[in-house]
Amino acid sequence: MIFQLIVGSCVAGINIVIHAVLTVATIRAARASSSTSHPWRHLIGVMTATVLILMAAHTLEVVVWSAAYSVIGVATDGADLVYFAFVNYTTLGYGDITPVARWRLIGPITAMNGVLLFGWSTAVIFEVLRKALAQHASLASS
What we know:
The protein is mainly α and 142 residues long. Helix content is 77%, strand content 0%.
């Protein structure tokens, strides 16, 4: 059990670093962009870019989990590990692929990581929206 927690924590830590890097890049890009001629088009562009970058981050994080699954032998031979990682990460939990007994905690650890990073992404999306709306309001009043 301890080994599962250590491995899961290491993979989760890698994903947290990935998420932090891409979150900072997203925020920096959103702050650097501005438009005075078409504020609503700008807002749509900023929000679309923000969500797409964060979706790419989550997809990369799922790939990291699936690579870890492959290295440690989480599922039986022939299992689709990217699919399995996506199901765990998103907490979808179909149950059509299950981990081998010695790795049964890795799914819940993956799910916990996904839930936390989705929450983080939601906060980033809201903050980018809030800042972009405030920027448009200040431009409109000047």
